[in-house]
Write a structure and sequence with these properties.
alpha/beta; elongated; 14% strand; two-stranded parallel sheet
């Protein structure tokens, strides 16, 4: 059910020098587009910073016209903090924004973050004991910085009202689209998604952008072709003797070279490639789990389950429930 509202909701997008520009511009586009499709103007979007004026983003883009955080209206509906570079985040922690957030935690309907903006919410203690996420590459740092946060590293965004966190950069757009759906209904949200050429609900979690791609990118020329072949087709015989034969080395030499150049063992990489293939099949097909396991290269359904628990932390069935196709 859409949230009843008789006047535009005040949405504050808070940036700072060093902020990621898309963390601010992406949400701005979603809320602005929603105003076009709503029966009446639904959002008043306000760009803000601690000092007001101009925000120099980490890309060099300059955003003018920010109001001072201290001058924001008292009836804020939603506050969203941008992520950014390390220096910018450190400046925010010492700017008074932490105290400002703490003072408004019980009066603002939604307080959220995009990407590494979660570090600011964590510094304010707002995420202690709550589920949250951030960019996949910053999850370990956030866990070390604030161990009380219950991190969900694979989530595109996490809702633990009244706090909302999203993964890297474009995930903030997904989060804001979910806000539009909650506020104005699925029809308006779908219209916004179509106009901006977005997924209404993005398939998959953010691990699809991390481990597998990172390992492939690290491959040196002598292993790159083989690694690409494994990723493209992780089925069949990918045992150590067969991979060593295809790599033109002895088993011992192949294992040593692969570990040194790729940072993981051949067996671990094969398992990761098979998990990635299984995730894609779970997201896009209605096949029984046994067939998914077979087409992903696992020898048994039990092997699929063990690999998922180890690599993803949930069962294949749970993964499909979260990221599978939405029924018509």
């Amino acid at each position: 059910m859409a949230y009843a509202q008789t006047h535009p909701r005040n949405i504050a997008l808070i940036g700072y020098d060093g902020a990621q520009s898309l963390d601010l511009v992406g949400p701005l586009e979603v809320f602005s587009m929603a105003n076009r499709f709503a029966a009446a103007p639904a959002y008043q979007v306000i760009l803000a910073s601690q000092a007001g004026g101009e925000i120099l983003c980490n890309s060099g883009l300059r955003l003018a016209g920010a109001v001072r955080v201290a001058d924001l209206p008292g009836d804020l509906d939603t506050v969203l903090l941008a992520g950014g570079d390390e220096q910018g985040l450190l400046s925010m922690r010492g700017s008074g924004i932490v105290e400002w957030l703490q003072a408004r935690r019980d009066v603002v309907r939604r307080i959220g973050s995009v990407c590494s903006g979660a570090f600011i919410l964590a510094a304010a203690g707002l995420l202690d004991g709550r589920r949250a996420t951030t960019h996949w590459d910053a999850c370990e740092n956030l866990a070390a910085f604030r161990p009380a946060v219950r991190l969900e590293p694979d989530a595109i965004f996490v809702a633990d009202p009244p706090f909302y966190t999203s993964a890297g950069v474009t995930a903030g757009i997904d989060l804001c689209l979910s806000f539009v759906e909650a506020d104005l209904g699925a029809e308006v949200a779908l219209a916004v998604a179509r106009n901006l050429v977005l997924f209404m609900r993005r398939p998959g979690g953010q691990t699809q952008f991390s481990a597998g791609l990172g390992v492939q990118a690290a491959a040196t020329p002598r292993l790159r072709k083989l690694v690409a072949e494994i990723s493209a087709d992780p089925t069949g015989d990918l045992s150590l003797p067969e991979l060593a034969r295809r790599g033109g080395m002895t088993e011992r030499t192949f294992s040593r070279v692969f570990q040194k150049e790729m940072g993981t063992t051949p067996a671990a990489f094969v398992e990761l490639a098979r998990v990635d293939r299984a995730k894609a099949l779970l997201e896009t097909s209605d096949w029984p789990l046994a067939r998914v396991g077979e087409r992903a290269g696992f020898g048994s359904l039990d092997g699929l389950h063990r690999a998922f628990q180890k690599r993803v932390g949930i069962t294949p069935g749970e993964y499909r429930q979260r990221f599978g196709r939405v029924a018509a």
